[in-house]
Specification:
single chain; mainly alpha; 3-stranded antiparallel sheet; 63% helix
Length: 601
């Protein structure tokens, strides 16, 4: 059967949309960004415990005193994890995505319920939307809207819409036909039949759909974090990529708390707004014991007063605490608060140099914003001007594909380290394997696999396209794509169990100082020459940040300095990278002035 080039057609369609409808995507991005920023500003403005109190009062009103107490305890736990800002960002993302999804899904569901042809046409579309892997939606999302919360919103809206449409249609179709006929017999218009008969009776089913929409939206936070949406998704993603068990547990629990809160509140709200739900609640209240204090729910007026009082207190505290301003050393405020967006992927030298330069730029009066992304989204963001610079471009092999793809949309700002080397490595206790030639015929010893890193890395293409073929290993070994952190975790596990393992690795890397490893020799030179680490910025970086461009062009690090910086960051632990890099910088007097010299008149 001939090859159907559906992927090429899809790429052409995306390119056409980018070229001809960029104005539309800019308008959508502006609207969505405004909605997100507005909701986030409201949720993030009060002190964490005051906002937790407001949400607890809402829980008390909807479900009772016990629910309010548990809600406050769960939200306070998030604050104790120092994840409150991330939680409010995630909650804002979920609320905005759910609102827009329901704004589209409910009318579509009503239309489908009233027209069988529309229902038949929508069914395969909804099946496609719900079964397509959610990661796929990030690709056009990043292409159309670049990185940030908007691609996350885009993917979330598409992924979570099907249950909203389906449940709305189902609820309206389940309304007793005799009731509808009776309404029509009394002269009720179709619009009033819908709003006064069908929708009120279908409300429990529709609210179940609302609940599913919100839950699916929340399940997308980690995927959205991969596109730079921030929030808990970014912390979960960072924990996964860095094998940070503690960070993963804490951020995961924060997601669980939000999920439970939203699930219980939407369920209770469904009972509040539904006539059938109110009737069931009234019966339950009538049969409840008067002493059931924990199940007591205040009236709407009392709950509103509580929310307003807490909101006023929060507003007063915000005004009283305003006006703070960070100071910069006299004569060094070159940046004058100019924002610099620095991206990085979770490779150790990238983490080290990124946070080093965050400290340097802050000391010179800039406002650097740091964001972790995968290589693909990061280079896309640089090409679109949504990010300014990144410090870990491996050229001319590992990241050359991105330089070729985006061409003159990027600027190479210079080399700061090199040459590097790519290699396969094994633990030193693996005998009789000292070069790539020695791997031949020994696949059974290593389980027939080579543990690799991200499939998008140029190193993986080099391994599959050159190294295995040159040494006759392509039919014997399977290269397992994973991530840098997963590869290191597998290496650590194998070494602890004294098991043979062969993995991709490169120099410089802290693993060579932590484990006793052997670099497999490459007598045929299949890996090619060593690479150099470049600083790569957006096209107009030098024009927008002339002083920084001048500084990074003179930036260089020795292997000793880089290793000690990485070690300091490793010692500082997860989440403390900036502070650790700051300590290392302070421990090297004169380095700040060398990296970012201030011209004196």
């Amino acid at each position: 059967m001939p090859r159907i080039k559906l992927g090429s057609w899809a790429q052409s369609a995306v390119d056409w949309l980018q070229n001809h409808l960029s104005w539309l995507f800019d308008a959508i991005s502006t609207v969505l960004t405004g909605l997100y920023d507005g909701v986030h500003a409201v949720l993030d403005a009060p002190h964490a415990l005051l906002m937790a109190g407001i949400l607890a009062v809402v829980a008390w009103w909807l479900r009772g005193l016990l629910a309010g107490v548990f809600a406050f305890a769960g939200l306070a736990l998030i604050d104790s994890f120092e994840l409150w800002d991330e939680a409010t960002a995630t909650l804002s993302l979920v609320l905005v995505a759910s609102f827009i999804t329901l704004l589209l899904a409910v009318p579509l569901g009503i239309w489908a319920a009233r027209d069988q042809r529309v229902s038949r046409a929508l069914r395969p579309v909804l099946d496609l939307m719900q079964t397509m892997p959610a990661f796929v939606y990030l690709i056009p999302g990043v292409m159309f809207f670049s990185i940030g919360p908007i691609p996350g919103l885009f993917a979330t809206i598409i992924f979570s819409m099907p249950p909203g449409v389906r449940m709305t249609e189902l609820g309206i179709r389940q309304v007793d036909g005799e009731l509808v006929e009776a309404a029509r017999a009394f002269g009720t218009t179709p619009r009033h039949t819908l709003t006064r008969v069908q929708l009120p009776l279908a409300l429990p089913t529709i609210m179940a759909g609302v609940n599913q929409v919100i839950m699916l939206a929340l399940s997308m936070v980690v995927i959205a974090g991969m596109a730079g949406a921030g929030g808990l998704g970014e912390t979960v993603y960072a924990a996964v990529t860095q094998v940070d068990i503690g960070g993963g547990v804490e951020s995961g629990l924060a997601v669980v708390v939000l999920a439970m809160y939203l699930d219980r509140m939407t369920g209770a709200l469904g009972k509040r707004v539904s006539p059938l739900g109110r009737r069931a609640s009234a019966k339950a209240s009538a049969s409840a014991r008067p002493s059931a204090v924990l199940n007591y729910r205040p009236g709407t007026a009392v709950a509103t007063v509580g929310v307003v009082v807490l909101a006023l207190v929060a507003g007063g505290m915000h005004l009283a605490g305003g006006g703070d301003r960070e100071s910069v050393a006299a004569g060094s405020d070159i940046g004058r608060g100019q924002k610099v967006k620095i991206g990085y992927f979770p490779w150790d030298e990238a983490v080290a140099t990124t946070y080093l330069w965050q400290n340097v730029l802050e000391a010179r009066g800039y406002k650097p914003e740091v964001k972790q992304l995968d290589p693909g989204p990061l280079y896309t963001a640089l090409a679109q001007g949504q990010m300014d610079v990144q410090f870990d471009s491996w050229l001319p092999t590992t990241h050359q594909q991105y330089m070729d793809r985006y061409g003159d949309k990027l600027s190479d700002l210079g080399t700061w380290y090199g040459p590097t080397s790519l290699e396969l490595t094994v633990p030193s206790y693996v005998k009789d394997v000292n070069s790539l030639e020695d791997l031949k015929g020994k696949a059974g010893k290593f389980g027939g696999k080579i543990v690799g890193i991200e499939a998008s890395a140029g190193m993986m293409g080099k391994l599959n396209g050159n190294v295995l073929k040159d040494y006759g290993l392509d039919g014997e070994y399977k290269v397992v794509s994973s991530s840098t952190s997963t590869m290191l975790a597998e290496l650590d596990r194998a070494i602890k169990n004294k098991e043979p393992v062969v993995t991709t690795l490169w120099s410089p890397h802290w693993a060579y100082g932590t484990y006793d490893l052997k670099k497999l020799k490459d007598p045929k030179g299949a890996w090619g020459k060593g690479e150099k680490l470049h600083v790569v910025g957006k096209k107009d970086f030098a024009a927008d940040f002339p002083r920084i461009a001048e500084w990074v062009k003179g930036f260089s690090m020795s292997e000793k300095d880089l290793a000690s910086l990485e070690a300091e960051i490793q010692k500082g632990g997860k989440g403390k990278e900036k502070a650790s890099a700051g300590r290392w910088l302070d421990a090297h007097p004169g380095l700040l002035d060398k990296l970012a010299p201030v011209k004196t008149s």
